[in-house]
Write a structure and sequence with these properties.
Elements (H helix, E strand, L loop, with lengths): L6 E8 L3 H12 L5 E5 L7 H4 L31 H14 L6 E3 L3 E7 L4 E6 L2 E10 L21 E4 L13 E5 L3 H10 L5 E5 L6 E2 L8 H9 L1 H23 L6 H14 L3 H6 L12 E2 L3 H5 L4 E4 L3 E5 L2 E4 L4 E3 L2 E4 L14 E2 L6 H4 L18 E3 L12 H22 L3 E5 L1 H15 L3 H4 L21 H7 L8 E5 L16
Cofactor: FAD
Family: Belongs to the FAD-binding monooxygenase family.
InterPro entries: FAD-bind_Monooxygenase_sf, FAD/NAD-bd_sf, Flavin_mOase-like
Length: 506
Amino acid sequence: MVGGKGEHVRVAVIGAGFGGLGAAVRLRREGVTDFVVLERADGVGGTWRDNTYPGCACDVPSHLYSFSFAPNPDWPRAFSGQSHIRAYLERVADTFGLRPHLRFGAEVRSMRWDADELRWEIDTAAGPLTADVVVSATGPLSDPKIPDVPGLGTFPGKVFHSSRWDHGYDLRGKRVAMIGTGASAAQIVPAVQPDVERLTLFQRTPPWVLPRFDRRITAAERWLHTHVPATRAARRGLLWGVRELQVGLFTKRPNQLGLVESLAKAHLRRAVKDPALRARLTPDYRIGCKRVLLSNDYYPALARPNVDVVASGLAEVRGSTLVAADGTETEADAIVFGTGFHVTDMPIADRVTGADGITLAESWKDGMKALRGTSAAGFPNFLTLIGPNTGLGNSSLILIVEAQLNYLADYLRQLDTLGGRAALDARPSAVNAWARMIRTRMERTVWNSGGCDSWYLDEHGHNTTLWPGTTAEFRKVTRRVDLAEYRLLRMPRRAPGAPVAAGAGR
């Protein structure tokens, strides 16, 4: 480690988004105060700090997309915008006294497990440190993915990803190309369409879109949620319950999703009268196979005279001319990529070297897998929040985070009970058994059988992203740490002055 090992903490948390802040709150509640939260940026918020594009909002209802231990009775809308969610996370950091633990500008450059000392050596942009336990909360939607398009470097105009929006560049009166049709594009398109000269949407695959039942939450409702907390809890419970009941359709009975498809097609017919355009916007796969979008203004925006929908992906750039895979050519002044993130190949994995001297990325070369979505074999005392197969297709990811926080808390309790210098390393047999169970259950889900190619799947075609069950089930399987699924590592006994044996503690 360059510059020495620096300070030592019991727990180092990577990332200050929902996962990292949630971990920090839980640590303090468990009486653990010897921890830091390492954040590469200059503020909290994670994806809700980075994504500031026009129209940015959450597609999960506000009262469900928040911590159960930090309810917010003052959400202004049923579906909150980016600024309100980031403000909520800032309040969480203040309310729970997290500021002293935050280390901004401390991007993790590399981490290595020290088998002799049973701790992690961490090199950050703010200096080195060591930690007994590391909690990775970098999140799957943190590092943008821009495709390697031939000739992109020759484009004379402005190019940026939706999660790195350039607010210094004025799109008004410009010819803008939107690449991708995911959740970000569905919000950006209607937000910028009225101001641009021409908007061209490059669409490889049309998404299924359902109405977004958004509205302003009245002052009376907010007063009631503040002064009668049971009403707030009931609202959250209802939102949760409805989504739990939907899970079976996605995971066990995808053939029964036809009624939902009919609703989506009716939504499309109401907004788009041109049959040719409607045909280009109609998916040919089962609804739910890719992420279902919620929007009331996406289709109307695409039907406007200054919008073109190219039913093909961007294949090449020749100066200011964009060429689609079907040969369509478009002139543009700006390119906005709404092409997603490194989800199944998380960049943090390249920076973590485990007990066997290989990186997490190398360990996951055939696909990500972690015991209960949290612990990877060969990486002792390293826990991932929102890890492999913990994502959701229809509910709030905060419910998954809180379940994993229960697991984290019990993990630390187990280490305390074991006493001394100890570490837990997930057994490969336990990790593999968990992965086989996930893969077997995934076969019948709409995500694997719905006839689409989505960002849920890795390069091998494996769904390493989503959880094939309810959030209640996930909470149950992460309630306690089963020590039988782990190898216990202890500090080797040493004679006074004796050198440490190679591989000790392994």
